[in-house]
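can u pls check wat happens w/ guanosine-5'-triphosphate
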Amino acid sequence: MSNSLIPATILTGFLGSGKTTLLKRVLSEAHGQKIAVIENEFGEENIDNEILVADTREQIIQMNNGCVCCTIREDLRTTLSDLAEKRRKGELQFDRVVIETTGLADPGPVAQTFFMDDEIAESYLLDSILTLVDAKHGEQQLNDRQEARRQIGFADQIFLSKSDLCTEAETAALLHRIKHMNPRAPQHKVHFGEVPIADVFDLKGFNLNAKLEIDPEFLNADSHGHDHHDHAHHDHEHGEHCDHPHHHAHDDDVKSFVFRSNKAFNPAKLEDFLGAIVQVYGPKLLRYKGVLYMKGSDRKVIFQGVHQLMGSDLGPKWAPGETKLSKMVFIGIDLPKDVLLQGLEQCLV
Ligand SMILES: Nc1nc2c(ncn2[C@@H]2O[C@H](COP(=O)(O)OP(=O)(O)OP(=O)(O)O)[C@@H](O)[C@H]2O)c(=O)[nH]1
């Protein structure tokens, strides 16, 4: 038991988005689980016994290779390493770790800490990044602050708080905008942090074998224009179409695009291309993930990454009768979509 990897969850969201509210709720509902919480700020409130709090100062260090996108949080590394050691020695018992970032934090260096430091990677498994968005102030925050937009781009799961303070139309518009920034993160409204624990833990956002879930509506909207049906239950004033005026009003720098093809990839070409891409665009790439159809293999290849850190693995076999298809989603800041799509196209057999 103590030898198994400790799951870690990053809880992020802009100032006042409801992180603490959600965390308290989760801690009170996590029946039987002991959760270590790491906060990168001092809370003035009393923390009960089950919660461990470590004071951590914001400090981002640059790694030797000089890549600005490959940073780890040294304070976090030390805290995680101390916690794991205490757990090994039996001095502390906990089943998982939640890291609550400050509202202005960039989740990138926090996430990378789990992949770039061997000692941390041997003790922990990053499960997911959860991003809270304030329904009332989110629109403005996304307009004004890149931190808020990056938090969306990194997310495995979006929680929308305070929708009780907004109209249905406002909420729908915000969720629509977020979906374009990050199509792979499911969206859930939360009322004062009320969420089923299954939406919070063991999401396997960084698991190479996890299925790639992209909202089919998004795929349709992206590739075929406006011939799809709109979100079933929202009574959008603009009817069936995806191109609401609000959609065009925001040209968010955090964007996503999807690559799909029925043709197989040439593995060597693709490896070269992706290697070059992450070298050049690493700082701008937030998250990317794909299920790949490779020539010469009867198995799926799964890949995913954060900034320049990319991992890939053999997945399950293509099932008999299953349509072989590559599907990749890239989420980043001002990515040159056309260059990347054309480049990928050229890696096909
Ligand atoms: N109306 C409403 N208020 C909420 C909801 N969720 C949280 N709040 C309130 O929003 C305020 C901020 O919530 P916090 O949980 O402190 O937010 P936070 O993200 O931890 O804030 P910082 O740590 O300052 O970034 C508090 O007053 C909460 O009670 C919600 O669903 N609806």
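The chain has two domains: 6-199, 216-345.
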